[in-house]
Specification:
It is built from 15 helices and 13 strands. The protein has about 375 residues and is of the alpha/beta class. Bound molecules: uridine-diphosphate-N-acetylglucosamine.
C-alpha cells in the first residue's frame, strides 16, 4: 500500500507505482487528500502519471494534530480492512507521519522513500516527521549519501538502509520530454514560491519575505506562484506593490516544471524545488537558514540566502557572473523508481511475504 496526500508526494510516488506495476505485483494506492485543490492534487497526479487512487480519505486541512489524527484514524480502519503486506510512505509530510505510525502499530513493515534527510532544525514540522518516520521504518530508502550517513549516525542498522537515488528526478525528466505548454518567451524571469510557516505565517516574516522577492524583482521579472498557505499575508505585506511582480495561483506540475526549466533564477523556501532546480540546472536561492538537502548546495545549483544577501545573489545571476560547476547528484538519473521497486520487492521476499500476482486494482471485495 502506498500512502500519498500532498503535492510533493505525487512526483516521488508515480515512478515507484509504475515500476511495481511493471513487476506485476498487486498494490493499493491511498490518497489522504491532505491536499485537495486541483492544481495541488488531481491535476498534478495526472501530470506525473499517477493512476486514480483506490481510496480517498478526505482528510483536508487543519492543525497538525487535527490533520495527522484524522489521517491516522481513517488509515487504521482502511489498513485493517485491506491487510497490505507493507506500507510505503513518501517524504516528510503529515500524511507520511500518520501512515508510518498507524502501519507500525498494526505490526506492518514501513518503507520510507526519501529517508535520512535532516535539516537539524526541530522548529520545522517536517523535521519532526522525518525523525519519527525514520525511527519506525523497516526499509529506509535514501536519495543521496548524506541521507545514508545521517541514518547511520543515528544508529539505524546498515542493512535497513539503501541508497536508491531520487524518484523526483524520474518525474522531472519525464515531464521535460513532454511538450505540455509553452514557457514564456522574452526577457529573463525568476520564479518565486514561498510557503514555509517561518516565512509566511506572521506579518513581520511576510514583510521580510516580500522584501526579498522585491530585491529579485529589481533585477528581473518575477512570476510568484502562490501556495494557498500565506497567499493573503504576502499580499497584505505588499507583494504586488512592485511593477515586475506577477502573481499566479498554484499551477499544475507540468506547467510548473516547464516554467522553471526556462527561468533564469528561482527563489524559494520549498524542499522539493531545491531538488528540481538542481535536476534542471537552474540557479536556486533558498530563503532559509538550513536545508535538509545539502547536496543541492554542494553539487547542485542551490544557495541558502538571507534578506541581507539576496540582492547581491540575484544581481550576479542577472549579470551572468554566477558561474559554478554543477553536477547532477549520483543516481538522480531517471531510474530511481525501478531501483525502489526492486528494493521493496526484495525486502518483502526476504521477509517471507507471498506477493500476490496482480492487477492494477485490488479485488472489489477488498474495498
Ligand atoms: C504541506 C507540507 C509541506 C510541503 C507542502 C507542499 C506538512 C507538515 N507540510 O504544507 O512539507 O512542503 O505541503 O505543498 O505536511 N490549502 C488549500 N488547499 C489545499 C491544501 C491546503 O487551500 O489543497 C491551504 C489550507 O488553508 C491549509 C494550508 O493550505 O490550512 C496548509 O496546508 P497543509 O497541508 O496543512 O500544509 P502545507 O503548508 O501545504
Amino acid at each position: 500500500m502506498h500512502v500519498v496526500g500532498t503535492r510533493p508526494n505525487f512526483p516521488k510516488a508515480a515512478p515507484v507505482v509504475r515500476a511495481i506495476e511493471r513487476r506485476d505485483v498487486a498494490q493499493i494506492l491511498v490518497h489522504t487528500e491532505q491536499h485537495y485543490d486541483p492544481a495541488l492534487s488531481d491535476e498534478t497526479m495526472h501530470d506525473v502519471g499517477l493512476r486514480e487512487p483506490d481510496y480517498r480519505l478526505g482528510v483536508g486541512s487543519g492543525s497538525h494534530a487535527t490533520q495527522t489524527a484524522r489521517a491516522m484514524v481513517r488509515l487504521e480502519e482502511l489498513i485493517e480492512k485491506v491487510s497490505p503486506a507493507a506500507v510505503v510512505v513518501y517524504g516528510d509530510v503529515n500524511t507520511a507521519l500518520a501512515a508510518a505510525l498507524v502501519a507500525k502499530k498494526l505490526l506492518l513493515p514501513v518503507v520510507h522513500v526519501e529517508a535520512g534527510l535532516r535539516s537539524g532544525d526541530r522548529e520545522m514540522p517536517e523535521e519532526i516527521n522525518r525523525v519519527v518516520v525514520d525511527a519506525v521504518a523497516d526499509l529506509l530508502l535514501a536519495t543521496c549519501q548524506d541521507g545514508v550517513d545521517n541514518l547511520v549516525s543515528e544508529g539505524v542498522a546498515a542493512d535497513k538502509i539503501k541508497m536508491v537515488g531520487n524518484p523526483m528526478a524520474d518525474s522531472v525528466l519525464t515531464m521535460l520530454g513532454q511538450a505540455v505548454c509553452t514557457p514564456p518567451e522574452g526577457p529573463m524571469y525568476a520564479v518565486v514560491t514561498m510557503h514555509r510557516p517561518a516565512n509566511v505565517d506572521s506579518m513581520p516574516a511576510a514583510k521580510a519575505t516580500v522584501a526579498a522577492i522585491h530585491h529579485v524583482a529589481d533585477q528581473m521579472d518575477v512570476v510568484a506562484v502562490m501556495h494557498p498557505r500565506g497567499r493573503e499575508r504576502l499580499d497584505a505585506a505588499g507583494l504586488q506593490r512592485h511593477e515586475r511582480v506577477r502573481v499566479s495561483p498554484p499551477i499544475r506540475y507540468a506547467e510548473f516544471v516547464h516554467l522553471v526549466s526556462t527561468a533564469a533564477l528561482v527563489l524559494t523556501d520549498s524542499g522539493g524545488i531545491q531538488e528540481e532546480t538542481t535536476i534542471l540546472g537552474v540557479p536556486c536561492l533558498t530563503l532559509r537558514t538550513t536545508t535538509e538537502r545539502p547536496i543541492t548546495v554542494t553539487q547542485g545549483t542551490n544557495r541558502l540566502i538571507t534578506l541581507a544577501n539576496v540582492r547581491r545573489e540575484a544581481e550576479s545571476v542577472a549579470r551572468g557572473t554566477s558561474t559554478r560547476a554543477v553536477m547532477r547528484p549520483a543516481l538522480w538519473d531517471g531510474h530511481a523508481g525501478d531501483r525502489i521497486a526492486d528494493e521493496i520487492l526484495a525486502y518483502l521476499r526476504r521477509t517471507g511475504t507471498n506477493l500476490a500476482a496482480a492487477t492494477r486494482h485490488m479485488e472489489p471485495a477488498l474495498r
